[in-house]
Amino acid sequence: MEGVIVNLSVSPRLNLFSPKPFISAFKLPTSIALHRPFYLRPSQQPLTCSAFFQDQFPTTSTSPEEEGDDDESYREVNRIVGNRTIQLPNIDNDTDIPSFATEFLVEWKDGHDPSWVPSANIAADVVAEYETPWWTAAKKADDVALSTLLSDPNTARDSDALDSDGRSALHFVSGLGSESCIRILAEAGADIDRKDKSGGGGLTPIHMAAGYAQPNAVKALLELGADPEAVDIRGRMAIDLAKEVLAATPKGNPASFDRRLALERVVKELEGAVYEYAQVEQILEVRGEGNSKEYLIEWKDGGERDWVKTNWVGKDLIGDYEAGLEYGVVDSILGARMVDGQEKREFLVKWLDTEDTTWEPEENVDSELIEEFDMKKKQSESENVQETSNIAVSPT
């Protein structure tokens, strides 16, 4: 039986990122008074009826100038019948997160065809009447309300609508742990890996589920194809965030017991999705200092070598590497002896790649090889006893 002469350690083949504080909170919507009639806000340039984008509801309407409207900057709104999120050409250089804007499909009282209008050009009370039911349902994780709004045949509801923090409904229902809402939104086309811009930025729905200790939501998102390796602006994967929150959750406090259990379940779910565990053959090199220190790992199964951060390499392997110990493959254990003055054993090891034999301390020999050696020794002793008992003693 072959084995490595150190305790076999497992280490994930993915680098992790240093944890940072998790600061995030939900904001509940405030009550909004609605007023009629509704009008467009005056813009710097006269607003025409024709939309900037006409891909969903084509229109051939003419501009107010052509029809001789008295006020070119206003047109009376009947209602909003749809919304959509568009990506802007500029990207935040600090976060590399794209910027987005919202447009609304406006139905006009004068009978003109519906047209897309930027949110900034629509009165706040008009927008509030359309958006408040959506965000209320999202922040309460009301699956019935979300499903009803999405299935309304009279509106073109955007399942990926964003609030002022760049968060979608999926961010909120994930943080609240609603599996049903997650599936409803995902089936409606919501981006399950959408990154927000709140605080540091870059939190995806699975970050929200992990940070708010929602293991069932994490599992649902993973089943729907969410990326467990997505990182926020601070370089944290969802598992980093969960471990960070777990470390900050008090131990021994009955009030936090359930939360710790939930976070541990979150970590377990994400570990299964993120890490491929494998036995380490040896450490080849080291680079970096402090939290950025990494080790070049050679895997026992012959997989491609990887640079792995300190936290994810067995401490015994690091200790052996830093002590200058070499690794070898054991062919067999030939004998054992007690170390003088100690209760530990040493083992006489025969190496596979050399004729030499050496005495090695117990901690440097694979435990499975030791068990095999002890088993064979007991079996041999038992056979010897049996053989002795069968010998007939001749009378003198």
Automatic annotation (TrEMBL):
The record ties this protein, via PROSITE patterns, to: ANK_REP_REGION, ANK_REPEAT, CHROMO_2
Q: Kindly state which keywords UniProt assigns to this record, in alphabetical order.
A: ANK repeat, Nucleus
This protein's major location comes to: nucleus
The source organism is Zostera marina
Keyword Iron-sulfur applies: no
Q: Specify the Chromo domain's residue ranges.
A: 328-385
Region feature Disordered, mapped onto this chain: 376-396
Q: Which subcellular locations apply to this protein?
A: Nucleus
Q: Where do the ANK repeats lie? A: 165-197, 201-233
- Could you tell me what this protein is called? Putative Ankyrin repeat domain protein
Bias-annotated ranges (Polar residues): 382-396
Q: Write down any Gene Ontology CC term.
A: nucleus
Entries under Gene3D superfamilies matching the protein = 2.40.50.40, Ankyrin repeat-containing domain
